[in-house]
Specification:
The chain is about 35% helix and about 20% strand. By secondary structure, it is an alpha/beta fold. The radius of gyration is 19 Å and the shape is globular.
Length: about 325
């Protein structure tokens, strides 16, 4: 846990919950003894490294903690694929906060990570009842202190999510390939698939984004997405059946977390890509009028979601965090 600001370190935390023993991989920047902490929670098909530029930027003034949610990055892939859902992720984050004894935390959550942030920053009595049915240690449940949260950043996500839109977005992301012959091949295809959504980035930035998204498969001698494919298909359906079943997902009632969002009282910043398929303009504006009444910042030419690696985006975060 040594190292100066700007440098990173990595470690594993062993967790037992939901009947599964698994490891949560954590990348961390900044001084380990700095009580002022930023907890970065990534998106659905992202990993902790997506925050590496942001983490390095803030490492002088904060301890920046970036876990890989299970099934992503270098964290464990679950045996029980049905556990890839919000309550399980929340349990792991509660365990992480308790294990590291965090007391002064600001959450930056992108997409899925933002949903986790909404839950964590809301009234714990509501989500603790749900978590208690997931075979979570009573010690961890009772040890959680919501007052440790000082501020929340929601990056292109709100309390209402349409599953049909999510499926469409994931299909667009995965249209590039499931394997890449080289890192150059990955960079080219990932840029082609994601540029319309993530917005314009430099050549070096696309190299970074490709490196975050892929891992080298020594057995297959190729590059693959870093995550467990089961996060997209937890029922392990055959491809034809899975493709057919996707069309029924649009009929699933949308996820509505306003009951949690309206209970948030900590300072909140809402960031949105103007072309976002997930956080529409009306929803974003509605969010500014209720709950924590966040300030809304929008980025031209960006969809879902702002990558938070460009300086103008980091400066906006910096100003918000300085005040909280």
């Amino acid at each position: 846990m040594k190292g100066s600001y700007g440098s990173s370190r990595a470690y594993e935390i062993k967790i037992i919950s939901g009947g599964e023993v698994h490891n949560l991989h954590v990348n961390e920047w900044g001084f380990a003894k700095n009580p002022k902490t930023i907890l970065c929670l990534h998106g659905f098909t992202q990993c902790s490294l997506d925050f590496s530029v942001l983490a390095s930027f803030f490492s002088k003034n904060y301890r920046v903690i970036c876990p890989d949610l299970v099934g992503r990055g270098q964290s464990s892939w679950l045996e029980n694929k049905f556990l890839y859902q919000l309550p399980f992720y929340i349990q792991d984050i509660l365990f992480l906060c308790a294990e590291l004894n965090l007391k002064d935390v600001r959450i930056i959550g992108t997409s899925l990570g933002g949903l986790l942030g909404i839950l964590l920053a809301s009234n714990p009595d509501k989500y603790m009842r749900v978590l208690s049915s997931f075979d979570m240690s009573e010690k961890i449940l009772t040890a959680w202190e919501p007052e440790i949260l000082k501020a929340l950043v929601l990056n292109d996500v709100g309390p209402v999510v349409n599953f049909g839109d999510l499926v469409k977005l994931h299909e667009e992301v995965n249209i590039s390939s499931t394997t890449y012959s080289s890192i150059e091949d990955a960079e080219k295809k990932i840029r082609l698939a994601m540029e319309a959504s993530l917005g314009q980035h430099s050549y070096s930035e696309w190299k970074l984004l490709a490196s975050f998204y892929t891992r080298y498969d020594y057995k297959g001698k190729c590059f693959r997405p870093h995550y467990d494919p089961a996060i997209l298909n937890p029922y392990d359906l055959p491809e034809l059946l899975y493709n057919f079943s996707k069309f029924g997902i649009g009929s699933i009632p949308e996820l509505n977390l306003y009951g949690f969002y309206d209970n948030i009282s900590i300072p909140t910043l809402l960031m949105r890509g103007m072309n976002s398929q997930i956080l529409g303009k009306k929803l974003a504006e509605d969010m500014t009028k209720r709950g924590p009444r966040p300030r809304l910042v929008e980025f031209k030419g960006v969809g879902h979601a702002p990558t938070l690696i460009q300086l103008h985006q980091l400066r906006i975060l910096e100003k918000f965090l300085e005040q909280n």
